[in-house]
Every structure is written in structure tokens, then in C-alpha cells.
Description:
Elements: H1 9-17, H2 27-33, H3 39-61, H4 63-72, H5 80-100, H6 104-127, H7 135-155, H8 162-166, H9 168-186, H10 194-214, H11 219-241, H12 243-258
Helix pairs in contact: 1-2, 3-6, 3-10, 5-6, 5-7, 5-9, 9-11, 10-11
Amino acid sequence: MELEDMPFMPILANFFWGSNISEDVSPEICLESFPALTSPCISGVLVKLLGIIIMMGACLNKLPLYINVLKTGSVAGMSPGAVYGETIMYANAAFYGLLRGNPFTAWGENGIMTLQAIGICFLLWKYKDEPKVDQNERLIAAAGFGAYVFVVTVILPPEHYYLLQASNWPVLLYSRGGALAEIWRIQHTGTQSIITNIMNLGGSCIRILTTIKEVGWDMALISGYALSAGLNVCLVASFFIFRKNTDKFLKSLAAKKKE
Length: 259
């Protein structure tokens, strides 16, 4: 029996090579050369696997942050503007990939991260104090996000999809810049997680490679991931710069909880 006649092989071949932009790669070409796959076919498999690994990592990305916040009952180190901006940033990237019909493995983690970022918004609303997030701000934020989703999915024409990525530059600068500004203002990283930020950094770097292989030289995407990587380097560095201050803050927070 030929490989292409096996029930599962066409499905796997189409998954690994069906969306590849290289003229040297297609399900038929790669199945014909199997098991002695050509280099382009092998790289296609590796890129898909990297995409899957990134999505699996994305499922756990915010978990350390969730644990820190729920354990301490504090969102110290988080800026509301940065949290809202991050939600829009991930949503922009997810909708861009979805609406353009890019492979799910090229953008899926952004959809996952959007849902997790929305969860962080709820934690911010619950635990933020000095000042607290009032009901009006919550309603405005929720209504604004609902209007954003409606405009992107219903009103935005295909020729303007690029605006989603173009707008991510200022949103990314505002979100990550706001997080950095808050850290430098309070001189510690609060309950934020270095693991989450390292995963963000690694994901941005890997995404540059997978975007080139799966989508092509889409500079709107690539430049966004490069900017994200640079800002994430600054955030990770902040954990080391303010490590002693953060240790003192967490100890004082734990002491307050015992009282």
C-alpha cells in the first residue's frame, strides 16, 4: 500500500506541508520522498512542531502569574493600562492571523494568550487597590473590548487587515512600556512572574523564524515580534535589577497576610 493511500497520511501531510509557501514543498512532493525527506520538507515539519510547542507553552504562560496573584492576593507591579494594552495586542495578532487565513500554528498562541490576558484583567479588577478599579472603569473596558471585536470581525475590510499589525507597534510600546514604567516607579517587580516573561521572550524569538517559514517575509508580523523580543529583554532584565527589592516586598506582603 502506498503512503498516500493510508487513511491518516494525507491528513498529516496536508497539516505539515499543505500551507508551506515554498515551491519545493507540497504534500505530494514530501510523501513521494518519504522516508528520505528533503531539507525543505524536514524544515516544514520542524516549523510546525515549533508552532505546536509554542501553543502548548502559551497554555501555561500566565499560570505562574495567576499562582502569584492568587497566593498573595496582590497585583503589585501591574499597570491597568499595560494589562488592557496587552489584551488588545494579543487580540490584534490573533485576529490578523485568523482573518488572513494564516495557518493556525502560526498564530494560535495569540488566541490562547488573549483569553489568558482577559483573565488577568479580572484578577486586576478583583485585587487592585490604591486606587481600586471602580465599576465604571470595568464597564467602559468591557464595552470597549466588545466594540473592538465587533469592528474587527464585522466592519474592517480585508484590504485594511494590515492595520491590526500596524497598530500593534504603539499598543505594544504602551503595554510593555507601561509595565516597565510601573516597575521602575515602584522599584520592584511585585507579583509578576519571571517565568512568564522569559516564555514571552522565547516565544517572540521563535515566532520570527516560524513566521518566515510559514507565512513569508511579512514585515508587519516580523517587526512586531522583533519589537516584542526587545521589550521582553528589558522586562526580564528588570527582575534581576530589582531582585533584592522584590524579595523585600514579597516578605512584607507575606507578613501582612499572617497578621
